[in-house]
Amino acid sequence: MSASRSYGRGAAILSLGIGATGLITFAYFSLASHSLAEDEYGRITLLWSAVFITVSVLYRPVEQLLSRTIADHDARGVGGTHHLRVAATIQLALGVAFAAVALALRGPIQDDLFGGSSTLYWILVVAVLAYAASYFARGYLAGHHLFALYGGLVFMEASSRCLFALAVAIGIAEGQSAVALGMAAAPIVSLAVVPWALGRRIRAPAESSGDTEFTLARGTGFALAVLLVMVAEQTFLNAGPLLVKATEDDGGAALAGFTFNVLLIARAPLQLFQSVQTSILPHLTRLRAGGEDDPFARSVSLTLGAIAAFAAFVALVMLAGGPQIMDLLFGSEFDYERGGLVLIAAGMGLYLAAATLNQALLAHGWAGRSATCWVAAAAAFVLFLLLADFDDPVLQVEVAFVGAAALLAAALYALYRRA
């Protein structure tokens, strides 16, 4: 019961910060949509996709590694900082690898993705490198159940980013570069809330010797499996707009921005779900380390039930007034189809269920098997987008998202039952 209350408090605290973060993220894109031309807004969404595809793929594995390892060490009474050094080494290597690839591919990235804008290219580079520290801090805070600081970090990140879009909206600044600068500033500003906590806990004396079994090879193996999960996750969330831009000759950037807006129905709740996702992994890891199978299964079942209720509510809202809500938020340049919005709401529920089951499998140490399911579902998603021939490319993305999310949720549930 104590563990359940701790998980509940952690999720509640994070929900406040991350829920506000989701609303502020909506405000950022709403302000940008109303302030910029369609092509400029389309490039902002492409920059956002490029940044968050990259940072989620590269750095969330280390966040998950830290969260799980710290929780496991705390449950077993293992002290020391060896696991932090291992995680930091992996994170540094990933950051260096990104910098090398980004510099080598500057021409294609700058010219083909950002229409020749060197400003957007350098914002991409700075933002991705800054997020290395941000995601390391997130994993550390989650593992130690410092959820108030975690919520403060993501809230500061979203708020500082939104201020740049607001400055353009009210005329203090102008242009897509000013809006985009918020993406580079946000992860740097957000770190202001955590250094004192990190320093205090790292300097605290260890309760026992460190875990000598937690080697660089072991940590890297877990991180690589989660990295594959993150590649698949970002494929689900971002392949649609990117493929629309690549396949549409006329107005590709504007249509990609429209597709991105539709998928925000799935993306925005994912930000709120981070409060559950962040708190449930260390919670389940502690339960597994203590051999508490019944509370483990009950926590997963309750979370899946809450997700089903939330997805049903969002679907009803989209059915009742989805097109009007989207027009209000993003303007009426495009026609938002009611049925497509309901499809995305259903896919969002299936996707959140899959993400919950993934955290349960990570707590069990089944990262590799979970990654196999994710990669297979993401491959099916992309193949459908490439091979199906819909007259409406946005509807094609919507159908592909729902189908692939259902496939993923079913595969992970079967694996979870075995675990």
Topology:
Layout (H helix, E strand, L loop, with lengths): L1 H34 L2 H39 L5 H23 L1 H8 L4 H26 L3 H23 L6 H15 L4 H9 L12 H32 L4 H38 L3 H38 L7 H26 L3 H21 L5 H26 L1
Helix pairs in contact: 1-2, 1-6, 1-10, 1-11, 2-3, 2-5, 2-7, 2-9, 2-10, 3-5, 3-9, 5-6, 5-7, 6-7, 9-10, 9-13, 9-14, 10-11, 10-12, 11-12, 12-14, 13-14
Short key terms for the protein model shown above:
single chain, 419 residues, mainly alpha, 0% strand
Topology, number of strands: 0
Averaging pLDDT over every residue, what do you get? 82
SSE run: HHHHHHHHHHHHHH
Protein structure class: mainly alpha
Strand content: under 5%
Compute the CA-based radius of gyration.
Answer: 21 Å
Main sheet record: none
Estimate the global geometry from the Cα principal axes: globular
First-residue to last-residue Cα separation: 23 Å
Fold and architecture overview:
This protein is mainly alpha-helical. It is 85% helix and 0% strand. It is built from 14 helices and no strands. The chain has helices spanning 2-35, 38-76, 82-104, 106-113, 118-143, 147-169, 176-190, 195-203, 216-247, 252-289, 293-330, 338-363, 367-387, 393-418. Helix 5 runs antiparallel to helix 6. The model has no long low-confidence stretch (mean pLDDT 82).
